[in-house]
Amino acid sequence: MPRLLGALAVFALMLFPVLVKADDQKYSLGFIEPGMTIADLRAADWPAGAKLFCGNDEALPEIDEKSRRAIMLTERLKASGVAPCALFGKDDDGLWRPRQIKIGSNPAAFWAIALAGDNGEPAVLAEVRMWQQNEFFAATVAALTEKFGRPEQSDVNAARWINARYEALVAHESKNGIITFLIDNALRSKVIERMAKNSVSTNPQGPHGQ
User: Fold this and answer.
1) Domain assignment of residue 209, yes or no
2) If we measure between CA atoms, which residue out of 61, 91, 58 comes closest to residue 73?
3) pLDDT in tens, 156-205
4) How far apart are CA 13 and CA 80, in angstroms?
5) Residue 3's pLDDT is what?
6) Is residue 203 situated within a structural domain?
């Protein structure tokens, strides 16, 4: 499990000054795109048997305890209209456990932040986080470069694409893993604003946080 220090290093990188492209290209993995509605995300072309569950779902199935904590909805999150979501699949014992997707040809754990719409509008996808083993770093950067073009910032530890609204980032979170972000920064700003009003941490940890 990645340590908090690794997560903090990733967020420090996200604050590092970088030349921002003037366009507003969405950084999408095809059926996963920040800004899409959560309803559309649930209906996306997931692997067979996989389902997206969010902490604010009216009825959650039997999920293993560790994974349930990753999408736990606290009262403060609920008051903020923010809900963590993750992808699950049912095991042979009927228990729902995390299900992976692929970035390029390599597996990745999937976790997301849903933001309730204003004035009754549908909830939307504000941010995606995907975890992989370190060995997939170069392949993931190559796969995203093929999709998004050359990154605005890159070195041996990270690659970052950013424009006027959207951002994608691949970075070493710890010696054992990498994390890939897809972010709608306008929506993420709303998440931070709402959570701050309700005295909530601005960094939901996801299934690999502490």
Assistant:
1) no
2) 58
3) 999 999 998 999 999 998 777 999 999 999 999 999 999 999 874 445 55
4) 26
5) 35
6) no
Indicate the DSSP class of residue 18.
Answer: -
Would you report the helix, strand and coil content of the chain in percent, each value rounded to 5? 30, 35, 40
Q: What's the pLDDT score for residue 65?
A: 85
Q: Which amino acid is at 163?
A: N
User: Would you tell me how many other CB atoms lie within 10 Å of the CB of residue 105?
Assistant: 8
Residue 47 lies in a domain: yes
pTM of the model: 0.82
Give tens-digit pLDDT for 153-164. 999 999 999 998
Count of domains forming the chain: 1
Any domain includes 193: yes
Is residue 103 within 8 A of residue 130, CB to CB? The reply is yes
State the residue range of the domain holding 69. Answer: 4-197
Q: What is the DSSP code (8-state) at residue 198? A: T
Please, which residues bridge with residue 139 across strands? Answer: none
For residues 123 and 108, what is the distance between their CA atoms, to the nearest angstrom?
24
